[in-house]
Structure formats: C-alpha cells, structure tokens
Amino acid sequence: MIALVSCLRNIPVALTGDEITYFNIAQELANNGRFYHEGLPSMVSPVMPFIILVGTFFQPDESIIWIPKLIGFSFSLIGLNFLWRFLKAMAISDTNATCIVALTICNPVFIRFSASLYPDAIAFGLFWILIYMMTRIKKMKHLFIILLVAAMLVLTRYVFAVLLIPIVFVFYQNRQHLLKFAANKSNFIVYSVLITLTTIPLFLWTEYILSFTGERSTTISYFSRYEQDGLFGQIKTGLGFIKGEEVARVNGIPAFATVFLPITGFRSWFVSLAILIPIVIGWVLTWKQLLSKIIIISAFIILSGYVLAGTGFSRYWLGLIPIFIFGIFSFAKKMKFSDNKLYIATLIICSIYILNEIRLDILVIQRDW
User: Fold this and answer.
1) What is the pLDDT of residues 38-95, one digit of tens each?
2) Half-sphere CA count of 122, side-chain side, radius 13 A
3) Which residue of 6, 185, 191, 347 shows the fewest CB atoms closer than 10 Å?
4) In whole angstroms, what is the distance from residue 307 CA to residue 88 CA?
5) For 37, phi and psi rounded to 5 degrees?
6) Dihedrals φ, ψ of 230, to 5°?
7) Distance (Å, rounded) from C-alpha 189 to C-alpha 71?
C-alpha cells in the first residue's frame, strides 16, 4: 500500500523528456487535427498522445495533466489484477504469487513510471491482460479480445508486434477448440467481422507511417538509426557494448541491474549478469510447463526486439519485471529455498525498496509540490 501511494508522487511533477513530446503531439491534434511534432509528422506510437487528448477533454492543458497520469496508473492496477490471475492459473502457491506481485509493486521502476505520461504503464496493463487471455482461449470471443488487446499494445509501443509469435503458438495449441467453434457458420461470420475490425487501426496507422517514411520529414525516425549504424551497430547498442547517439549512457545488459537496484545511472556487466543468469536458469527449469512457455517466449522475443531496436531503458522492461522475478523464484526453488524463506526475503527486499521510496517521496514533495 505504501508503494502504491509512492507511485502517486509523480502526479503533480512537471513533464520531462518524452512526456513533453506526447503532450505537444496531443496539443497539435487538438489545435490542428494532425499528428505532428515541431511542425513535422511524427511516427511516435499514438496511444499516449490520444490518452492525453481524451483525458484533458480535447483541450490539453498541464493544469489537468494529472487526469491522463491517473489513467496510466489505472492501467497499472488493472495489469496487477491480471498478473495475479495469471499466477493463479499457473498453480503457483498463494505465498509465492503474493511475493511476486509485492516485489513488482515495490520495484523502483514500477513506482517511477506507473503514474507518468510514459506509455509503459499502459503497456504493463495491456500486456498482462493479453498474457492472461492467452490462458483462456477456448472460444472465438477470446480470440477477438486477444487480437484487440494486441493491436492496442502494438500502438502503445511498436516492439510488442513481436508478440504475434506467442499468440500464434497459443492459437496452435488451442486450434481444436477454435475450429470447433468456427464450424458454426453464424459464429464464424460474426467473429470474422469483429476480428477484421481489430486489424483496421493497425493498417491505417501503418499506411500513415509509410506515407512519409523516407522523406526525412519527421522529427523522430526509428529508421534513421539503421541508416547511420546498420543493423549490427544497433544490436551492439541494444546489448550494451556501445552507447547510442540519443542517450547519455549505455543501455542493454549493463543497465539491466537498474531494474532491481534503485541506483540512478548504475551500469555493470558483472552485477547485471549475476542477476540475469539465475533468471534464465529459472526459465529453463520451468520450460516444460505450457504457461511458463507463454511468458518465457514473450519475454525473450520482446527483449530480442529491444536489442534489434538498439534500445533498452529500464522503463521498457516494466511489463517483464514479474517474469524476471518468476525466473528468480524458480531458480531459488531449485536451490531448495522454501516458500517461507522466499517470503522472508521478499519482506526484506520490499522493506528496503519502501524505505528508499519514502526518502524519494520527501525529496520530490519538497522539490515539485
């Protein structure tokens, strides 16, 4: 509860970084009806600017920017609810499920970005809705919900398009249920129309992006970085071997430790690998379980997508934090850690996190409120 309250300290804080970009695009939409930034078309993912637009009643104003921030926070809470449902579907004990959710809530990255104008809170909620629905796919309506949420997720952050791979995997696993339901002609027609409707926003947005791609008439281009450094250069950047031109520090693997250690700007190959290796071992140990495969495949291809994109800010990994913790718990269980020991370790870690967040709460309130 204290951690959730700490999340709200960001509500009155002034906009920074990409938050300003999303806000300016929302203003351009409201004033001129176009998705522009600094007088040029933008290929920034559209969900956050539209949430700002709707949340400020189509009149973007920083005095009421707390409303879109609360919308993002609401998605975070929804994501936690579906995370809990998924953990229960995995038949994880109540103790371990509670620990995983608690460590997620108290995580510094969750607290920092769950109530901001960055799209990662929205993505967190949509991601765990999608993951949970993949466990429920028995009818065509579940297929429709999955595709609808997936489309919204892609328009929130483009890298999530790679989730088509686990979606296809789940569809294949449940093909008999879907084919049986689709055998009814009326059901097939209705859901074919609904499923087609979910893809229309993606096609329209893709057409919009392609309309100016290559003209160099955009303020932010995700393709220019490949023209400058090539795919191999982006992979090296994504892994953390070199620093990207648009950032102050290396990201990728050396930055992975900052997902768990509340030290701003901390970079370390040794510490990051010391955390990452047990996670991967934990994933391997649970690979035979179907639901484990869903989250492991999802995490792996999303991380691979970030590597190929040459990026890796800690906030991008927000939705994957529970999967990382799951890997650590699986590894700990293999090392003969009992549920009671994991519970005590969780209490200690969460207490450290919360004490640090209370310190930050005081600093932020003194500075920005």
Assistant:
1) 888 888 999 999 999 999 999 998 889 999 999 999 999 999 999 999 999 999 999 9
2) 26
3) 185
4) 31
5) -140, 125
6) 75, 170
7) 35
Query: Which residue is it, tokens 């007088």?
Result: 39
The tokens 């559209």 sit on which residue? 46
Written as six digits, the tokens of 51 are 């949430």
Structure tokens that stand for 190 in this block: 């209705």
The DSSP bridge partners found for residue 40 are: 37
Q: Which two tokens stand for residue 325?
A: 């913790």
Structure tokens at 100: 């995983």
**pTM for the structure as a whole:** 0.92
SS (H, E, C) the chain: CHHHHHHHHHCCCCCCCHHHHHHHHHHHHHHHCCCEECCEECCCCCHHHHHHHHHCCCCCCHHHCHHHHHHHHHHHHHHHHHHHHHHHHCCCCHHHHHHHHHHHHHCHHHHHHCCCCCCHHHHHHHHHHHHHHHCCCCCHHHHHHHHHHHHHHHHHCHHHHHHHHHHHHHHHHCHHHHHHHHCCHHHHHHHHHHHHHHHHHHHHHHHHHHHHCCCCCCCCCCCHHHHHHHHHHHHHHHHCCCCCCCCCCCCCHHHHHHHCCCCCCCCCHHHHHHHHHHHHHHHHHCCCCHHHHHHHHHHHHHHHHHHHHCCCCHHHHHHHHHHHHHHHHHHHHHCCCCHHHHHHHHHHHHHHHHHHHHHHHHHHHHHHC
d(CA 296, CA 128): 13
Cα radius of gyration (the chain):
21
Distance CA(115)–CA(128), nearest Å, equals: 17
Exposed, middle or buried by CB within 10 Å (0-12, 13-18, 19+), for 247? middle
> If phi over 0 gives left and psi between -120 and 50 gives alpha, with beta otherwise, what is residue 45?
beta
Q: Is residue 231 pLDDT above 80, yes or no?
A: no
